[in-house]
Amino acid sequence: MRILITNDDGINAPGLVTLAEIAAEIAGPDGEVWTVAPAFEQSGVGHCISYVHPTLIAELGPRRFAAEGSPADCVLAALGDVMRDTPPDLVLSGVNRGNNSGENVMYSGTIGGAMEAALQGLPAIALSQYMGPATAVLDDPFQAARVHGPALIRELLDRADWTADADFRLFYNINFPACGADAVKGIRAAAQGRRQGVRFEAEPYHAPNGRRFLWILGGSQTAQATPGSDVDANMQNYISVTPMRPDLTCHASLEALRVLEKG
């Protein structure tokens, strides 16, 4: 199997090292793992692409490339240049340092990389590691992802639905809980949730030279969330798996909206 890995924490992120290990185990001794990752951290860029300026790409080693762009740019760089003649069988994005469950999904560059792969017709999985007090004391804070990731990915490849749904290919979002591998209780198939009362906000800051800046701040990652959701599962030390697609249509409301149709 030929696997492409990317992330949004950057080419030197420790989570990418973990993902390379996971990918190597999945690919097997006869497989290949290719890395095309952002040259610099791209957290929070979502599904952004560098549409109005070129992307510099550099080869750092065998099958290892850094691109000055977003995770979605990196997927496009791999398919259009680096791996043009040998496209991947699977795209893995992560392992993100921090969760991408709940409302975080909408901001995540990790998700953006997997989504772009799905839009290109490829099987794709985003992987993220919840962080907290229990992971802070571990020698390897990505332990839960490293230990449980390979088997779960194999299960998804063998048993999950990879078909196109309403013209959009599915991809999967995996979040590992903030605990050691031995403390993981199991796996939950879960919908994307929402932490109650959590919003991003802008906080003004005045530099010593008098100039005014803004810091973008996130909210509590342990706030109560929708029961049975990905956040809820992660907070109970379960791995969450969420099927997703690049379709923001609210299909439940579409029929009622037809009363507005004219002509």
Outline the structure in words.
By secondary structure, this protein is an alpha/beta fold. It has one domain: 3-Layer(aba) Sandwich (Stationary-phase Survival Protein Sure Homolog, Chain: A), CATH 3.40.1210. It is 26% helix and 26% strand. The chain contains 7 helices and 13 strands. The chain has helices spanning 14-27, 71-82, 109-119, 133-136, 143-159, 230-235, 251-254; strands spanning 2-6, 32-38, 57-61, 64-67, 90-97, 124-129, 164-165, 168-169, 171-176, 186-189, 201-206, 212-217, 238-244. The strands form 3 sheets. A 9-stranded mixed β-sheet has the order 3-4-2-1-5-6-9-13-10, sandwiched between helices. Strands 7-8 form a two-stranded antiparallel sheet. The chain has a two-stranded antiparallel sheet with strand order 11-12. Helix 2 (71-82) packs parallel to helix 3 (109-119). The longest helix has 17 residues, at 143-159. It comes from Paracoccus laeviglucosivorans.
What does this entry show, briefly?
Nucleotidase that shows phosphatase activity on nucleoside 5'-monophosphates. The protein is an alpha/beta fold.
Features:
263 residues, alpha/beta, Stationary-phase Survival Protein Sure Homolog, Chain: A, two-stranded antiparallel ribbon, 7 helices, 13 strands, globular, hydrolase, EC 3.1.3.5
| Mean pLDDT rating | 96
Q: What characteristic shape results from the CA principal axes? A: globular
Strand content: 25-35%
Distance between the termini: 52 Å
Structural class based on helices, strands and sheet pairing: alpha/beta
Gyration radius, to the nearest Å?
A: 19 Å
Number of strands: 13
- Summarize the amount of helix as a percent range: 25-40%
- The strands making up the biggest β-sheet line up spatially as 3-4-2-1-5-6-9-13-10
Count every helix, treating DSSP H or I runs of 4 or more residues as helices: 7
- For CATH, the homologous superfamily is named as Survival protein SurE-like phosphatase/nucleotidase
CATH topology: Stationary-phase Survival Protein Sure Homolog, Chain: A
- SSE run: EHEEEHEHEHHEEEEEEHEH
Largest sheet: 9 strands, mixed
